[in-house]
Design goal:
alpha/beta; 2 domains; binds 3-methyl-2-oxobutanoic acid
């Protein structure tokens, strides 16, 4: 049984300190968020992965702050307990501190309790520190960072050597020093993720980063078997919603064409009195 108290960033830290795993899933709509919340999952990420899962883009780069505001509002309306984190999309935190603050503030006003941004350059670290000083909780995201796909050049595992792992650890430490309350580690070898997790204080949330992170995050469409694109090795599919949708849609299609649906149980009727009046007015063909 899970606690019904709202999960906060402090809960995250307590869970890491108590060696309790943190769970996180993405969600993009109200009803899915509600069911995830009711399942006991600790946190819901309104990920900019919605660019692919919901909006049909090839990457996250097309997602706008307006998109994120719409989906963050929808998710937040469905959640009473889990910690809602909203991704800051590409270009929403790259222009100036002022714009970053306004955009992060809008996500918070839409119901998110924290925002996530990718990378750990000096510029980003400054933003993390500034947002934190404004009372906005910030999650970091290092390792494979999808918003840098054009520079990375593909979906490549990060931190594959001792030196690269040290660089990732440096980034993680700097994010922590600047106020990040947790750090997402994406597509990092298990040993590197473990090394980073054990050498920083704040929790790490892994996706494709092995078993030793403080918590795990996956994309909801991937675990439901709903997404039709490439499914990475680190995903575990817990359901086959794609087939459920296809079967339901094709059965519906057939039943309408065969005059099976709608049937008696699905229709509204006039009273006998009104029916008699209308019966005399059918046009004869
Ligand atoms: O956008 C997203 O869903 C994410 C997760 C994959 C961590 O950033």
């Amino acid at each position: 049984m899970f606690e019904s108290k709202p999960v906060t960033t402090k809960t995250f830290q307590k869970m890491k300190d108590n060696n309790e795993k943190i769970t996180m899933l993405t969600a993009y709509d109200c009803s899915t968020a509600k069911y995830i919340d009711e399942s006991g999952v600790d946190s819901i990420l309104v990920g900019d992965s919605l660019g692919m899962t919901i909006l049909g883009y090839d990457t996250t780069l097309n997602v706008t702050i307006e998109d994120m505001l719409t989906f963050t509002k929808a998710v937040s309306r469905g959640v009473t307990r889990a910690l809602v984190i909203a991704d800051m999309p590409f270009l929403s935190y790259h222009v100036s501190k002022e714009q970053t603050t306004i955009n992060a503030g809008k996500l918070i006003q839409s119901g998110a309790k924290a925002v996530k941004l990718e990378g750990a350059s000096d510029f980003i670290l400054d933003e993390v520190s500034h947002l934190t000083s404004c009372g906005i909780n910030v999650a970091g995201h290092i390792g494979f960072t999808p918003q840098y796909i054009n520079q990375i050049g593909g979906y490549f595992i990060q931190g594959k050597s001792y030196e690269n792992t040290q660089n990732l650890l440096k980034s993680a430490k700097k994010l922590e020093e600047n106020g990040a309350f947790c750090i997402v580690l994406e597509m990092v070898p298990e040993e590197s993720a473990r090394y980073i997790t054990e050498n920083i204080s704040v929790p790490t949330i892994g996706i494709g980063a092995g078993r030793y992170c403080s918590g795990q995050v996956l994309v909801i469409d991937d675990i439901l078997g709903k997404f039709s694109g490439n499914i990475p090795k680190f995903v575990k599919q817990y359901a086959n919603v794609k087939d459920i949708i296809k079967n339901a849609a094709s059965t519906y299609n057939k039943e309408v064409k065969d005059n099976i649906f709608p049937c008696k149980e699905n229709i509204f009727n006039l009273t006998e009195e009104e029916k008699e009046k209308i019966d005399g007015h059918f046009i004869q063909h």
